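This section describes the prediction task in plain terms. A model, or a person checking by hand, is given the sequence of a single protein chain and must write out its three-dimensional structure as a string of tokens. No templates, partner chains or ligands are provided. The sample shown here is typical of the held-out split.
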Amino acid sequence: MCRLTLSTEQIRIYDDFLDPDAFKALLPHTTEDTFGIVHREEWRKVWRLGDGLPLEGTTTYYRPDASGYDTDEDPRYPTGTPIDTVIEAIHQTAVADAADIVGGAGSEWNCMSLTPWVYPQGSGLSLHRNRDAYSGSFTYFIHHDWNFHWGGQLLILDPRTGNGYDPDDSPYNPPFLSDQDENRAAAEPGIGLSILPKPNRLVFIAPETYQMITRVDANAGNRPRVALAGFFM
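The expected answer:
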């Protein structure tokens, strides 16, 4: 049964988010998707030069008002696949219990995206915030097992990070060529919360939150970190 594990001003974590059968159906479905290297068209600068080569699957879109889809929002809900169950559960939970984290439906967001992400050994995602076009974000872990020593943790920096200094004002923004100003912000107070990517765990994240994905360790072998991640737009 779904249970609230942690609630702060930055995140909300739910474990055992879907029932076992619905959860187990997701990885086989995701296996059938088409994936591409995240930089297949151009370098996406939120990933730094040492972040490896994560793989991005097909984005599905959900609008509570089904008549409001843009022409390029395809595929869209309902898909007739196991993805629909996740979308419905995330929407219900976001509206009922997480509007203070991801924004109010209909007022701060009217569209939700969901994309499969595969992080193989050696890949990660450097420090960033998902705030420009989004009222919030989420990640939901769908691999069937994970070990603490395999890396791939979601790292959330303390809300006091920067103490008023915004690295987005740096001439090195985005900081994929130089992160000296970003490091200055992250070093104060220099505290973070590490979230293990437990299977069947959902995390809502507020848009101003500094976050990163630690590199998947060699101990993981050929077992990638697999998640469905998306935004409230």
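For orientation: The chain has a mean pLDDT of 96.
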